[in-house]
Specification:
The protein is α/β, with parallel strands linked by helices. It has one domain: NADP-dependent oxidoreductase domain (TIM Barrel), CATH 3.20.20.100. It has 10 helices and 8 strands. It has an 8-stranded parallel beta sheet, with helices on one face. Strand 3, helix 3 and strand 4 form a beta-alpha-beta unit. The longest helix has 15 residues. The protein starts with 7 loop residues before the first strand and ends in a 21-residue tail after the last helix.
Length: 269
């Protein structure tokens, strides 16, 4: 697995709140941080990392290219801007944030430009985000699956994406789960709460453990130290086959993120 299994998400965080959150996460033991150009917080992430005693070589930094930079002549220069904000010579992973088929994006062009960024040493690994099976296949045909480190997709007990997961795993492409707690909607789920009680854990920890146990990387975000520590501790929870099966039955196609202009036609399970 290329992507660290546990990272700090930074979506919707910025300014001092973001700096404090990343600083705390690194103190707690996180060693992966996920950001994106559209989050407008790369400079804050860079500051937090620069001020941390944790060495850059011990960190795994992911950023994502936004749609307005997909043109081949723009992608690499935009990534160089991101590197400047992040105060690093290269990131560990760069993703295409959305496939954006309705914007007329050529998957071949954008993947070739991303591969060039990797070849120029601007990013150690490259990958995709929010791609369905068909578009992932296009990316594979264009640059080869060995160059696609991960597909970062929305996954939660309420949105399980079985067909897409099965395809990605068959291609040896890491799965990164975002929105694993479905904006907190899964926290009050009685099934998760019952399983949590058996493990003396929280329902959030159970949702994260469910994802981790399937081999997914997770990137929950938090601004509170105790939540970060609890999330991190989810790595120590081992769910039984019966508990995993019970969570599988929670599937309800509960997608939280679906921007019309950017999203592909999602695979139906």
């Amino acid at each position: 697995m290329i992507v660290p299994k546990f990272g700090m998400g930074t979506f919707r965080l910025s300014g001092q709140t973001l700096i404090d959150s990343v600083t705390t996460a690194l103190e707690v033991g996180y060693r992966a941080v996920d950001t994106a150009q559209i989050y407008a917080n790369e400079a804050d992430v860079g500051q937090a990392i620069a001020e941390s005693p944790v060495q850059r070589n011990d960190l795994f930094i992911t950023t994502k290219i936004w749609t307005e930079h997909y043109a081949p002549e723009k992608l690499i220069s935009s990534l160089k801007d991101s590197l400047q904000k992040l105060r690093t010579d290269a990131v560990n992973l760069t993703l295409i944030h959305w496939p954006a088929p309705k914007l007329g994006v050529s998957i071949a062009e954008v993947m070739q430009a991303l591969l060039q960024a990797k070849q120029q040493g601007l990013t150690e690994h490259i990958g995709i985000s929010n791609f369905n099976i068909e578009l992932t296949q296009q990316a594979i045909e264009c640059i080869g699956r060995e160059h696609i480190a991960t597909n970062q997709i929305e996954l939660s007990p309420y949105l399980q994406n079985h067909r897409l997961i099965e395809f990605l795993q068959s291609q040896n492409i890491d799965v990164t789960s975002y929105m694993t707690l479905a904006y907190g909607k899964v926290l009050n789920d009685p099934v998760l709460q019952e399983i949590a009680a058996q493990h003396q854990a929280s329902s959030a920890q159970i949702a994260l453990a469910w994802a981790l146990q399937q081999g997914f990387a997770v990137i929950p975000s938090s601004t509170q130290r105790e939540h970060m520590m609890a999330n991190f501790a989810a790595q120590d929870i081992q769910l039984t086959q019966e508990e995993m099966a019970a969570i599988r039955h929670l599937e309800r196609n509960g997608r939280e993120v679906n921007p019309e202009a950017l999203a592909p036609l999602w695979d139906e399970d």
